[in-house]
Amino acid sequence: MASGLFSQLISMGMTASWVILVVLAVRLLFQRLRLPKKYSYYLWAVPALRLICPASVSSAFSLFNVDFIGRKAAGIAAAVEWLAAGGSAAGVAKSAGAGLASGAQGMAQGAGAAANALNAGGTVAAGTAGADIAGAAGNAAGNIPAGMAEGMIQKVLDGITGGSVSAADLLHIASWVWLAGLATILLYSLFCWLRLRRTVHMAVRLQDNVYECGNISSPFVLGLFRPRIYLPFRLSEREREYIIRHEEFHIRRKDVYVKALAFFLAAVYWFHPFVWLAFFCMGRDMEMSCDEHVLVEMGSGIKKEYSLSLLSFASNRRLHPAGPLSFGEKDAKSRVKNILGFRKPGVWAAVGGTLMILVIAAVCLTNGTGGADGAGTDKAEINGTEINSAGINGTEETAGTPETAGTVNRTEDGQPESSMSQEGSREDAVLPDIHEVMGRVFENCWKSQRMLSFGDVVPEDGDYMVRLAATEDGLYEAYGCVSPEYGYRGIYMNFRLDGMDNINEVDAEWVNLYDGPKLSAGDYDGDGRDEAALAFLVGSGTGLYLEKLLVFETYDTAHMDPYELSGEKLEEEIGRLLDYRVDTAKKTVDITERETGRVIVGGLSYKLEDNEDAGFGGVSYGSHIRYALGDQIYLYVGVGIMNSVFPEPGYPGKDVAFRVIYEDPETAGKDCFRLADPAEGVYGVNAEANGEEAAGFDVREVLVPVEEVADIRVTNGNTGTVFMVGTQEEKEQILEAYAALDIRPEEALQQRIGYSYRIQLLDADGNVLQNVTPYKDAVTLDGEIYDGSMNQTTTALLLAVSAAREG
């Protein structure tokens, strides 16, 4: 039974290959005609029906009436039938029906003659080894040398096994391999689905079927019969609105069922590369059509915000192919380009798209009528084209949890000098050791300079290193590790001692979003030897922004030992230094210094305008944690005020700043951090200095007047390509975004390593007026870096530059 089913799938899959190729070509035509993506999405129903239905009707306008395609279809279908019948003519005649009996008999005779001649050491002439394919099969296929396909198959088997394995044995073995592959894929998909369900089991209901969860990094829909929308925390109201619309449209259009069926077909045809190609292209068209639906509903004014959300959510999440419908998946770069170029379709686009789909369905879902003489065969029984045994085998990453901050030091040639033991989680037990993976990523990326800049969109597969930060003197550098097994886990610290690179590995997770990591060096513990300090984002969401601080002891051997300021230690130190005082009459709270009673931040309200009975609920310090690094290390903690009505703290935008004291671990042990000098602060600089600097800074003094710019030269930092912006419209868009920059000087910002795009503003004589390197949260102007994290103007410039094309 399994052999018969498998041979039928081979036949149906090969027929569907031609249909998939046609759909891919028409899909490109739709793209040229700028038709909405929903028509490309609907097209994929045609190959899906070919993969599901073993029978069809014949028509004069079928794709399989094309001479070349018809010959391939009939010839290889006969070979598949011969395999299924165990290499006997009788079996072929029985399975193919009376209409094919004479043709199958001829092919089987040809196979026997070819095999006998080859086994005897003789030669076989292609045209005379056996009878021509006769009858209906001959009419459909043309003059294919009889027995050629079967003889070649049997020849290969005889050569490998000495004649001990028949065609029937081959098909039997292959069918069991197919079943094992199908079972593996389905079981692993079930495991991934259960793991995802466990991830969101603590989600909080926001409204109707919409839930918020702190353990996810991208919105998605989960569930077939009662689909739910899951959102990460820290989404703005505007962002939440269009993301919910996107996901609700998935649900209304029944995309959850479509994707489940499409993945099941891909799993059944796991050996067929074209089916997997169709699956991923269909998913991309599905997401793009949803993007366009949201733009039609909400207007083109959200294009920029929508694109930024896509880029953010695509950076840090990789989902199993059978996973949920995720807002940020499926080639974010192509989706952003489609969004920025989208225009609301007219009536003719709908008419043209619908007619094209109907034509493709009629051409591809029907079988051919036969050969030149009109004597047709029942191709509903053949339904096959070309056998291709190539399959796609892939693995999906399993996210582990780092348990230690142990390091492995590697010399410049990439070899480990020593290793610290690591106790992994249960999930880590089924994965390679994290330091083995980091060693492989280092070998693949370091010498080949397979590097990305922080904030760049990382491709969904393969090994990558991301430049995180560097000190001004270049003595210390930090790089992030990205691997299929662990995702964004692992940090490389490069200690360039005496001009030599020395890599120290740190098992720590990091996030490729928002503000970049910060790296500085200084003698923080006063022992006469410099330490390196690294602060980087580890978690974000609604009302949540958490950075981690690592301080590295450095040694003459180029080793670096990391020490972490843990959350437990932070809680202990903040509780030791701070207290609060409540004024119930005014419904305000003052944050005070515990020892002296001095007010640090005063007048924080817990009053609710629509609920006079709301009482004080407490103070929270654990959701906004940021560090500023330099000669000293400063901690900025956001003050959250809770009331008796809502359990989640509100943040009035007030920070308490602390100086971080780091003591020599040789004397203090692992408990080497403490906090001191609490004061009201603004992240990056103290409140007084920040106010003076902001008041005295005019952004127009550092920007070039746009009327002086005649040309713009763009350098792609990833490919090295340099080109002049081609159209006047693109120049105006870039200059408009440039003139709108809202930035400020920020001493705490580190210079960035690498870039995605850099532009040079040129005057009419070709002279460089200014070098500009935009990032998502900052911009560099002639080598000076300016902060843009308080708004999205630097990101808007980056998007405008990325959309430019060569003239």
Describe the protein's topology.
Blueprint: H1 2-32, H2 37-43, H3 45-52, H4 67-84, H5 89-96, H6 101-119, H7 135-141, H8 148-161, H9 167-199, E1 204-207, E2 210-213, E3 220-222, E4 228-232, H10 237-252, H11 255-268, H12 273-298, H13 303-314, E5 325-326, H14 332-340, H15 347-364, H16 379-382, E6 407-410, E7 416-418, H17 434-445, E8 451-453, E9 464-470, E10 476-483, E11 487-495, E12 503-509, E13 518-522, E14 531-541, E15 544-554, E16 560-564, H18 567-577, E17 578-583, E18 588-593, E19 599-605, E20 616-620, E21 624-629, E22 633-638, E23 640-643, E24 655-662, H19 665-668, E25 673-682, E26 685-686, H20 687-696, E27 711-716, E28 722-724, H21 728-739, E29 744-745, E30 757-762, E31 768-774, E32 778-781, E33 784-787, H22 793-802
Parallel strand pairs: 2-4, 8-9, 15-21
Antiparallel strand pairs: 1-2, 3-4, 3-5, 6-7, 6-12, 9-10, 10-11, 11-12, 13-14, 14-15, 15-16, 17-18, 18-19, 20-23, 21-22, 22-24, 24-25, 25-26, 27-28, 27-30, 29-33, 30-31, 31-32, 32-33
Helix pairs in contact: 1-2, 1-3, 1-4, 1-9, 2-12, 4-5, 4-7, 5-6, 6-7, 6-8, 10-12, 11-12, 13-14, 21-22
Q: What does the model show?
A:
This protein has 807 residues and is α+β, with helices and mostly antiparallel strands. 38% of the residues lie in helices and 23% in strands. The strands form 6 sheets. Strands 13, 14, 15, 16, 21, 22, 24, 25 and 26 form a 9-stranded mixed sheet that branches. Strand 27 (711-716) and strand 28 form a beta hairpin. Helix 1 (2-32) crosses helix 9, helix 4 (67-84) crosses helix 5 and helix 5 packs antiparallel against helix 6 (101-119). The radius of gyration is 33 Å and the shape is globular.
